[in-house]
């Protein structure tokens, strides 16, 4: 352990290199970027939608125990349509999405507590319950039929007699009676039911185990007859081709994203056939962890607005459907999610390195306008470290990617201390992607004198199908090696002190963290947030959506049981000899608490410093403000104690066993 200070550093006689700053050791700098500020700025924005009268979106509020509300923007003001205790959130696939739908007269939403569908009258604001089904019946990805008479939805039924897992299907919901009629079933999963403009045809996506939707899906098209579907035609896709976000241009004319070329490009389909609109070695879609994710939006019959991602970095563009002409758009933003067209104007949820995410309106040639922000910040951008893209060689002969954040604080500098400690961050998924959007968790560290390296290891999205497939059968190996190789590259450049490297991650990133600590020796400590310690238990116990995910990442189970045992940190805890802190929601259905608790017990018996912070009422990810604050502060305190750093903050004590 120890603080690894440079021999020339003297705490009693600091040498200020800049008369406007104070010299102090890395990690001890005082910062206004507090855990409370992060929690207040952790408001989530999502689900942007338009009924061509008003604009709507969802807002997740940590200060209201993570409750998600539906907002409407009208006459330059925003109003809440779903007062407490309503919570707009679906549990289909556990990750939800597509939990509301707007029509000219109504807004329909799924309420989290009972998973029933409700209707808001957009004129009076009155709310009425539509369905009356048990919580074992869940709905998502809502779509409307003409006249608000019925809804189309993805339904997920749990506890079906004789079935080992949930049953997924497409249904019609009668708005007047709440009656549920099955449209189609038989496949393991369904998504994106979309009715043609003339209401004569329905398109939808389906896929089967062991695929995830970014591995392979089928786009089906069938005649729609109100309560029934005609025979379905497979338009595109298969076991090795991922089709995403089918969108109607006109009756008989569809747009969709396909990765058949190795990249999610946009395709047009009509009676004359299908073609790629603009062949490109870039991504025009992202892995759909939730329903109704939108990376492109129809501007008119001949143009589509899209987010183009190359080497993990996004650009806003307009693409000509007929001529394939790609035209980049000037924007003040760097991330463009939930693209939506409203009243001839393009809207998106924007992200950039120095601002909270926001609902942004964009008209070419005009100044972009912000309708709403994800909270407020009482500090300026001078406190933020700028993310630097880093590409580095990997031991398998390829190249991997990440963003490096150098220590930065306008009031402090390190004096003669040569290099800072570093936090290596492993994102979730593992088919996720870290971006340049403002990362206040990273800024919390950098403003205190730490470096942060946010890794887009092999398996991440944003770099093409082959890059995602680097993790096939290699989870726990390629991702760990990439984190280690990136660390070595930064150390060789003199950017970090590799002796003071820690690693943190959540969910799948928590697994990479635990694997790096167990099977490697590059990190002095780690923090696992609802991370996976037992791959075999995950394969047996997790929810349906991900129950076969590990077939591709690790291998078929139980045929490859030994591989699961070999790569599970819980079974090799004797190799783990560094401190770890665990954060866990006690109602997590994706990664059950038993996994964290088993790892904690092993470290406790071995006499290795360990801390366990469980949260009542939390699921997969923390939504309550007080729990977000506790996780941020406790993690920092844990790492500081490992390196004998005295934080400038007054942080509530953390019980660390064996320290």
Do you know the CATH architecture of the largest domain?
Answer: 3-Layer(aba) Sandwich
Identify low-pLDDT runs: 1-17
CATH superfamily of the largest domain: Alpha/Beta hydrolase fold, catalytic domain
Q: What is the C-level CATH assignment of the largest domain?
A: Alpha Beta
Which structural class do the helices and strands define?
alpha+beta
Q: The CATH topology of the largest domain is what?
A: Rossmann fold
Instruction: Specify the overall morphology.
Output: globular
Q: Count every beta strand, where a strand is a DSSP E run of 2 or more residues.
A: 38
Mean pLDDT over the residues: 93
Helix content: 10-25%
Number of helices: 10
Largest sheet: 8 strands, mixed
Protein traits:
2 domains; four-stranded antiparallel β-sheet; 10 helices; disordered N terminus; single chain; globular; Rossmann fold; Methylamine Dehydrogenase, Chain H; 659 residues
How would the blueprint of this fold be written?
Elements: E1 22-23, H1 35-40, E2 44-50, E3 55-61, E4 67-74, E5 77-80, E6 100-102, E7 106-110, E8 117-121, E9 127-129, E10 137-144, E11 150-157, E12 167-174, E13 180-185, E14 189-195, E15 201-207, E16 218-223, E17 233-237, E18 243-250, E19 253-258, E20 265-270, E21 273-276, E22 296-300, E23 303-310, E24 313-320, E25 326-328, E26 335-342, E27 345-352, E28 355-362, E29 369-373, E30 388-393, E31 399-405, E32 412-413, E33 422-426, H2 440-446, E34 451-456, H3 465-469, H4 478-492, E35 501-506, H5 508-519, E36 525-529, H6 535-541, H7 549-553, H8 561-567, E37 580-585, H9 593-606, E38 610-615, H10 625-642
Parallel strand pairs: 1-32, 33-34, 33-35, 35-36, 36-37, 37-38
Antiparallel strand pairs: 2-3, 3-4, 4-5, 6-7, 7-8, 8-9, 10-11, 11-12, 12-13, 14-15, 15-16, 16-17, 18-19, 19-20, 20-21, 22-23, 23-24, 24-25, 26-27, 27-28, 28-29, 30-31, 31-34
Helix pairs in contact: 4-5
